[in-house]
């Protein structure tokens, strides 16, 4: 993709994604489709940025007139020191995935938590008052835990292979929200879970393409305790974890809609007043599914 920037050309809004690598990112396809469908003069470009060049990249993007920037792995924390302001939710989650241009620099947001909430509500899944379970305590798990706290989960247990990380995440969220909603447990202690009919969130990378066919827990007894589950992994469309939930009689939803809605929230932040319709969401879902199937 080449960009020609001149003084006389009509103004085109430029946004993009920085990460390392970004070649696999589905965001350019998604954003450029919305721009086209809504007839906006808008272009979205993928930019590979080395780990030690994040500050330079942000300053360069500002000078080039980028209206907004998505930030993906591994720069979601590192980028925070190069921003003018950080939204409260992003600060609480400890990661920024969306930058919005303001006078003199960018403000950082995290659209993963709201994206996940919109996605699950679209599937009729409301965490309010529910006993929830999370597997994993990595970067994405922070946004999941934040979403569950924000939307009134009754209780949350975080199971993680590295117990310390589960404990730190639980403690941090409980402190931020001023209530003891989240407990931490080691992954192998899943047999000690006290409740039934959990709303479960699979947030580890286990089972993600190309290492498909694996789940972080294989024991069918565990899956009998799950009523509804969300696997935030979006490729493959049906993970081993989702299969195990369904085999035990539960409902399982994959992570593609979370990815789509976090992008829509960023798009809305950059284009205030613009509405992405459900029909456009359906088209994007289809385009992304085709792309993922044809790798
Ligand atoms: P991360 O920060 O690297 O965290 C990985 C998590 O997976 C950790 O909890 C890690 O446990 C656990 N894990 C890895 N291998 C494991 C194994 N063999 N057994 C048990 N646990 C294991 O990764 P992330 O950024 O949170 O991403 C996690 C997944 O979420 C990825 O597949 C990513 O694509 C997906 N994701 C989806 C969306 C979306 O929009 N749908 C958004 C963000 C992320 P330890 O702490 O013990 O290492």
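^ Assign residues to that structure.
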């Amino acid at each position: 993709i080449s960009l020609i920037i001149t003084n006389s050309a009509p103004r085109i809004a430029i946004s993009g994604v920085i990460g390392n690598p970004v070649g696999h990112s589905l965001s350019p396809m998604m954003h450029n489709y919305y721009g086209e469908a809504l007839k906006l003069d808008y272009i979205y470009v993928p930019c590979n940025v080395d780990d030690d060049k994040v500050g330079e990249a942000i300053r360069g993007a500002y000078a080039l007139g980028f209206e907004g920037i998505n930030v993906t792995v591994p720069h979601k924390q590192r980028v925070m020191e190069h921003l003018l302001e950080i939204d409260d939710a992003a600060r609480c989650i400890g990661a920024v995935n969306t930058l919005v241009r303001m006078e003199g620099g960018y403000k950082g947001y995290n659209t993963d938590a709201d994206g996940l909430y919109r996605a699950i509500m679209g599937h009729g899944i409301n965490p309010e008052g529910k006993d929830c379970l999370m597997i994993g305590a990595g970067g994405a798990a922070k946004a999941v835990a934040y979403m569950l706290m924000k939307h009134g989960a009754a209780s949350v247990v975080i199971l993680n292979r590295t117990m310390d990380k589960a404990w730190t995440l639980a403690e941090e969220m409980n402190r931020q929200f001023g209530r003891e909603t989240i407990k931490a447990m080691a992954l192998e202690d899943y047999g000690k879970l006290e409740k039934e009919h959990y709303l479960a969130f699979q947030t580890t990378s286990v089972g993600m393409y190309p290492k498909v066919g694996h789940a972080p827990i294989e024991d069918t007894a565990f899956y009998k305790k799950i009523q509804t589950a969300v696997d935030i992994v979006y490729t493959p469309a049906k993970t081993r974890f989702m299969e195990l939930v369904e085999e035990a009689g539960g409902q399982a939803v994959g992570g593609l809609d979370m990815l789509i809605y976090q992008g829509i929230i960023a798009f809305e932040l950059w284009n205030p007043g613009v509405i992405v319709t459900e029909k456009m969401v359906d088209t994007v879902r289809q385009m992304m599914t085709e792309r993922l199937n044809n790798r």
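The pocket of NAP is lined by residues 73, 112, 136-141, 160-162, 165, 203-206, 208, 216, 232-234, 255, 258-259, 262 (CB under 6 Å).
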